[in-house]
Amino acid sequence: MSPETVRVRLLQALGIAAIVGGWEAAARGGLVDPLFVPAPSAVAAALVDMGGSALGALGETLVKTAVAYVIAAVVGVAGGIALGSVPALRETLHPFVVAAYGMPKILVLPWIVLLLGFGVVPAVTYGAIHGLFPILLLVLGAVRDVDRTLLTVARSFGARPWQVYGKVILPAIVPSVLASLRLGIVFCLLGVLIVEMFAGVRGMGHVLNSFANGFQAARLFAATALVSAVSIAIVLALDHVSETLSRWRG
Fold this sequence. Notes:
Blueprint: H1 3-28, H2 40-85, H3 87-102, H4 109-116, H5 120-144, H6 148-156, H7 161-198, H8 204-213, H9 217-249
Helix pairs in contact: 2-3, 2-5, 2-7, 2-9, 3-5, 4-5, 5-7, 6-7, 7-8, 7-9, 8-9
């Protein structure tokens, strides 16, 4: 680790410590109402007290998110490549894809619950829908914007269609695909949590909703921090994968 990186990490740690310290001081000094904003020490104690029950609920949410993410990633990447590669198909369907992306997804939730009932299936379905469109549109745009000169040169040298995809299109769209996948996982997790909160499905969203309705602020903060930490860790892991694959592209 370079000295510059160490310096940046140190500044980041000091910034977090300052925020937590100021928050603790404000809570203990009575500047904020502990009923709504508990001290970090109370949040930490609540996290320890929740223990395995919180981890179990989080595990259920992450399993549903993983299934939704796989569906969204496969359909989004494959659909984006297909739509981006065929001009007639793209011109026909692109307006509908943009319209579906622009529609508030929460409007679809009552219909999903009506058709699929309660349980794992509606949570996975809604999570996949939530994550699908950002992936689909980013990949579609990346394929559409591939330099046509590269495609012409590849074809002029006798490259077959599968070689054009493997040697030109796929390496060119790697950054956009990886960016879409990092964005998609967050949207899938958000979709699953929404269903768990508002459709009474077991999982971390249901736990968060129960804590909010019961005015258990310390537990609510602790559960929120736990979900946030896991989400950030997943995004950082995908960012590491992105850097590794970018070296392959180069």
